[in-house]
Design brief:
The protein has 5 helices and 3 strands, in the order αααββαβα. The chain has 2 domains: 35 residues; 86 residues, Cation efflux protein, cytoplasmic domain (Alpha-Beta Plaits, 2-Layer Sandwich), CATH 3.30.70. The protein is 46% helix and 18% strand. By secondary structure, the protein is of the alpha+beta class.
């Protein structure tokens, strides 16, 4: 189109601006059409929690599973367009509920659209009340040499 306008209006003053303007319009169309792809790719690169997953709701659902006494170090991120993965530590008190607790956790994760997950099951025979569960998890995460307070996040 620009070539036709140049052919028919070669002596017009505005014709020198036509090619840059058309180029900018094309660049705008390209950027507008790939903006969503750039956004999604950047979210994957920074390993952001997918917008469709509420971490607090997921954690509460995992904590409601029979035999699970604590959930911590729950991480969820997207590695590809449709592949969401998770890693989570769960605390159980009795090894006899291990298989069922893991199966139930996998089902809850699946219900949230997470089809690839890593579960670390920690067996803690300590009989602690709900208030002490977090401190119990801290004991399991930290070593005596740990000077940072990051173990208990």
């Amino acid at each position: 189109m620009t070539a036709l306008l140049l052919y028919f209006f070669p002596d017009q003053v505005w014709i020198v601006y036509l090619d840059p303007v058309i180029s900018l319009i094309i660049v705008g169309i390209i950027v507008a059409s790939i903006a969503s792809v750039i956004k999604e790719a950047s979210e994957i690169l920074v390993q952001r929690v997918p917008g469709e997953i509420e971490i607090s709701v997921l954690q509460k659902c995992l904590e409601k599973i029979n035999g699970v006494h604590g959930v911590h170090d729950l991480h969820v991120w997207k590695v590809a367009d449709e592949l969401i993965i998770a890693s989570v530590h769960i605390t159980i008190r009795d090894i006899s509920v291990y298989d069922q607790a893991v199966q139930d956790c996998k089902e809850v994760l699946h219900d949230f659209g997470i089809h690839s997950s890593t579960l670390q099951v920690e067996v803690s025979p300590l009989k602690l009340d709900v208030v002490d569960i977090k401190s119990d998890m801290c004991i399991q995460n930290c070593t005596k040499q740990c000077t940072e307070d990051w173990c208990c996040m």
